[in-house]
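Per-record layout

source: Streptomyces griseoviridis
name: Pyrrolo-quinoline quinone repeat domain-containing protein
length: 629
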Amino acid sequence: MSQPPPPPPHQPSQPGGFGPPEPPQQPQDQPQQPGHGTQPPQPQQPGYGHPQPTPPPQPPGYGYPQAPPAGQPPQPPAGYGYPGGQPNPYAQPPVHGQPTAYGQPNPYGQPNPYGQPPVHGQPTAYGSQPGYGYPGPPPPPGGVPGGKRKGNAQVAIIVAAVAAIALIVGAGVWYSSSGGGDGKKDDTAGSTAGTGGKDDKDGGGDTAGGGTEKVPADTAGKILFRVPSPKVSDTTTVTVYGSWLTDKAYVKTGVAAVDGYDPDRGTKLWSIKLPGPVCTASRHTTDDDLTAIVYEPAMPTKAKPTHGCTQVAALDLDAGKKLWTRTVKNADQEVRLDNVTVSGRTVAVGGTSGGAAFDVSTAKPLWAPKPTDTCYDAGYGGGAKLVAVRRCGSYDERQLHIQTIDPKTGKVNSEYKMSPGISYAAVVSTDPLVVAADVGDSAGDGSGISDFFSIDNKTGKLRTRISAPGKDYAARCDGISKLEYCSGLAVGNDRLYIPTEAHDGTGQYTKTNEVVAFDLGTGRQTGQRADAGDGYTLTPLRMDGPDLIAYKRPPYNKGGQVVSLDGGSFKATTLLVNPSTPAAREAETGMLPTYSEALYSQGHLYLSGVFASTSSLKKDLVVAFGPTG
């Protein structure tokens, strides 16, 4: 089943017709043994982790140029990712109630990482002043929990709010788990931070390779349905994170609501009204399609622009109902929750002031971070395993602990301590374990990624470190609060698949790029390289067994495509070709996978927005493409 907003315009560097050269193997950090508490800081390792010079300003990046008028030569493309002359759909006015990177209210509307204004319920990130990776405010007085976790004997800090059962369907998030996007199981080839679709259960038919995605007899597609963006008050911009696919429905978060739609026709099957906006949502589900969201207890108003992201709820995506709602307390204060995920039957939530874990079916408290340690859980990565990112020490001497933990008990099974000075990390995959970080703020492009760290789940030892300079590669992560929110990359076959930045194509004003693979054991490129083709750029979505599902962003006069890349040969097989009519191109270019939620399964591609405001009243919340037959 079924992961961030657009970057500021910039022109990617030109890696050449075959993509950037393979970097030499990165020296590894010294591995750490699993355990509790703080150990002496490790020295910063040399090599690609060191800050790199910031590239000079470049002209506007590639996008969808408008068709040139008759008799005139084509014009260069306008802004990155959007049609010439069209504004960035996410460039919305500042709004009230935006939490900072530490989850606190930000009523003054600081700019966010990708050139977007802060929005209600959305933490700021890399682009906030003074910038991603810069020290933020210290944890609350008295410290925040860390080191060890307490068990059921200390679950008094977890306070049950209201156990509500209502007719609903769950909300979701950009990214899907691996192995088909419905979360029926995590892919045996490895998990991924890309988007996904539901598993193929009916068998039969030709598939692209070793996965389950069938190759249709006719790849021509059409618009199946469009859902208009919901109405928002003139003083508010709210988040609408959340989308999943099940065998029964396509599910999408609205403004303080979660709705289920017929996956072919788009007719609404059911709906639930929430008291406030959805702040964040798990990208993972259980085998029986249960998941979790975090939302506010009330809608923002001019007088009170935020009510805090304090409510965690479990959802049944098949039945279309909310199973329960809970809050987490630190002393007598409700904790603002930045992160939620699902692993096994456990819902894990976290914030700077505390966290908790619940049974997804019953809401039974399972464990919580111990509130007397010097560290705190910044958040969790779920799916096949449960991984905690713990921040330890003061804000100017911070060290991150990457811990694989038992989802039922919170016991730390292994731990890797990153070099001091790395302030934020995002969980790309939990099995195999891969995290991304912007070491020394060297990415230079707001992507939040300069290096990937491949870690052994069992021992906590570093397997390898992969350099991925922002000037060369196009994936991105939000490692500040939404720790699973990575896009444009995938993990499978013990490999990391990432796209290169776009570079000049062979035609006039055209761009293209490649997707390359890195071995998670050696850190070296495998030699697999998929070319997007002139005028197209290629973005990984998710794994399909051993194969990679990717989206081909088209030139201005064509529709996008979904392809399957064979896990061995990297040969591309076309699965869907979107229509090239003006209406279809307009709908598609408004929501591309890099800047929206994207789900693909069995010939169906769903693109959906993540913000709603008055400026989006005439825009789409969802655009669905599918077969013409």
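summary: The CA atoms of residues 126 and 446 lie 6 Å apart. The longest helix spans residues 582-589.
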